[in-house]
């Protein structure tokens, strides 16, 4: 019945009810005071009336607040989150009309505007998708061509940070450390060899052939360093006589935005879309961060606002103890899976290298970080990275009253979680990375542009993690 009235009329009637309620409470309080007037001391009836009125009026105010919160404030926040989701993430789910039924024509109008804008966006997206498919096909042809040539190819910028590497280069790099875009070449090769080659090239302007040792000096490669017309250099490395075999097919991995590196500003002040993130997850023998152990680690790199295909870490971990059947039933990691796997110290060091110069991201991060920090001494590393938690990011964007499980967040962001990947370390890390990519523009839409902005806002929702853990 009320939903048929205009929003302004409903608000007017609501405050008429408030006025009538206040008058009624005052009358009732005065009546109680008058009824006790003959048996009370002078002034007593007025005190009694005041006390009754104060209590009843407080109760009325609480009821008014509850009604406004449930029927006005929460629906407006939800509607704002829905509109921001559509504006910044291209998601078009129907607006919850039932939740916004007391907001008059606002929700239908928002739905109409959103549908019209999304129709235009979809037309543009279709064109972009066609062009992307064409470029992807060209990239695949280039990858196949480079694979046929027995030379590993690495493109670097002026600061010798990796901009591109092919599958053969990935084989060489992975034999030294985990391949990573943006990583400095000195993380893999002997700095003095690179320095001499770069100095000679800058003096002569021509390509330089030189011997290149890995960073430990254990292996020497025949290499060439060539200048690029734009900016940066191309490093070509002759493949060993017996080519290394990758664990899985490796596509051409690149991000040409890295040809123009930033000024190296402090990470806290860097724009979110320009940061390097590592979304990670762990599976364990149980839920105690003090007594249980890790059995699987998974991680995915996100750079310049996109997931880097081909840069993942997926490793079983030997916990040195039997895995309880109840835990195996959840994550499907059995004792036979971890047999022969590295222990947590070795696997953790590999993850630490994978996360170098990155912001860590996890869903309920305190749980996963507790295991890593507990083993710092055995790993010989320090886990002092900045950390973002997608539980808190979800609360910032969608409000604390919403559900913030990983499944609920992915459902809200229209991220599909294949059942076979749920509750696996790499599977959960991948969907966490996808959620992060969609949350970044939503956070920027709320005026949170830098890492420090988001961390400061996250602290206001810290109680969510305390309750969750």
Q: What sort of overall outline do the alpha carbons produce when their principal axes are compared? A: elongated
Strand order of the largest sheet: 3-4-5-1-2-6
Assigned CATH architecture of the largest domain: 2-Layer Sandwich
Which series of helices and strands comes N to C? HHHEEHHEEEEEEEHHHEHHEHHHHH
Beta-strand percentage range: 5-15%
Helix count, per DSSP?
15
Give descriptors for this structure.
alpha+beta, Beta-Lactamase, Nucleotidyltransferase, domain 5, 3 domains, five-stranded mixed beta sheet, 15 helices
Summarize the structure.
The chain is α+β, with helices and mostly antiparallel strands. The protein has helices at 7-35, 44-89, 106-148, 167-174, 191-204, 325-331, 335-338, 344-354, 365-374, 376-379, 390-398, 406-412, 425-445, 451-459, 463-468, and strands spanning 151-156, 162-165, 208-213, 220-227, 233-238, 253-254, 276-284, 294-303, 306-316, 359-362, 387-389. The protein folds into three domains: 2-118, no CATH class; 149-238, Beta-Lactamase; 264-468, Nucleotidyltransferase, domain 5 (2-Layer Sandwich), CATH 3.30.420.
In words, what does this structure look like?
The protein has 469 residues and is of the alpha+beta class. The chain has 3 domains: 2-118, no CATH class; 149-238, PAS domain (Beta-Lactamase), CATH 3.30.450; 264-468, Nucleotidyltransferase, domain 5, CATH 3.30.420.10. The chain is built from 15 helices and 11 strands. α2 (44-89) runs parallel beside α3, α11 runs parallel beside α13 (425-445) and α11 (390-398) packs across α14 (451-459). The protein is elongated. Mean pLDDT is 81; it is low at 244-248.
């Amino acid at each position: 019945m009320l939903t048929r009235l205009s929003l302004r009329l409903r608000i007017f009637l609501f405050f008429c009810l408030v006025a009538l309620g206040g008058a009624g409470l005052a009358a009732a309080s005065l009546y109680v005071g008058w009824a006790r007037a003959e048996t009370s001391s002078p002034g007593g009836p007025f005190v009694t009336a005041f006390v009754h009125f104060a209590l009843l009026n407080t109760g009325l105010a609480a009821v008014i607040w509850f009604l406004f919160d449930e029927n006005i404030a929460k629906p407006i926040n939800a509607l704002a989150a829905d509109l921001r989701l559509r504006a910044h993430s291209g998601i078009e789910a129907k607006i919850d009309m039932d939740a916004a039924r007391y907001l008059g024509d606002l929700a239908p109008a928002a739905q109409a505007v959103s549908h019209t804008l999304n129709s235009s966006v979809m037309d543009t997206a279709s064109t972009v998708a066609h062009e992307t498919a064409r470029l992807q096909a060209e990239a695949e042809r280039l990858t196949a061509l480079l694979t046929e040539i027995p030379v590993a190819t690495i493109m670097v910028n002026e600061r010798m940070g990796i901009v591109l590497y092919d599958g053969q280069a990935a084989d060489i790099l992975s034999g030294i450390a985990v391949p990573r875009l943006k990583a400095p070449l000195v993380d893999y090769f002997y700095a003095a060899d690179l320095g001499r080659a770069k100095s000679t090239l800058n003096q002569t302007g021509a390509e330089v052939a030189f011997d290149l040792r890995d960073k430990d000096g254990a292996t020497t490669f025949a290499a060439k360093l060539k200048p690029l017309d734009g900016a940066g250099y191309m490093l070509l490395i002759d493949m060993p006589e017996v080519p290394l075999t990758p664990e899985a097919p490796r596509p051409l991995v690149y991000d040409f935005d890295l040809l123009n590196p930033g000024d190296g500003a402090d990470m806290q002040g860097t724009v979110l879309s320009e940061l390097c993130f590592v979304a990670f997850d762990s599976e364990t023998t149980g839920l105690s961060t003090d007594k249980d152990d890790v059995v699987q680690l998974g991680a995915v790199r996100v750079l310049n606002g996109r997931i880097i295909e081909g840069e993942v870490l997926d490793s079983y971990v030997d916990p040195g103890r039997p895995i309880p059947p109840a835990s195996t039933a959840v994550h499907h990691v059995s004792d036979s899976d971890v047999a022969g796997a590295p222990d947590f110290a070795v696997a953790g060091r590999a993850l630490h290298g994978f996360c170098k110069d990155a912001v860590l991201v996890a869903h309920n991060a305190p749980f996963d970080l507790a295991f890593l920090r507990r083993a710092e001494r055995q790993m010989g590393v320090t886990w002092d990275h900045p950390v973002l938690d997608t539980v808190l990011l979800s609360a910032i964007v969608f409000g604390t009253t919403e559900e913030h499980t990983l499944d609920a967040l992915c459902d809200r962001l229209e991220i599909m979680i294949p059942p076979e990947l749920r509750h696996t370390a790499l599977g959960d890390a991948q969907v966490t990375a996808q959620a992060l990519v969609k949350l970044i523009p939503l956070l920027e839409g709320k005026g949170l542009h830098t890492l420090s902005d988001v961390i400061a806002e996250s602290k206001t929702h810290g109680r969510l993690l305390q309750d969750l853990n």
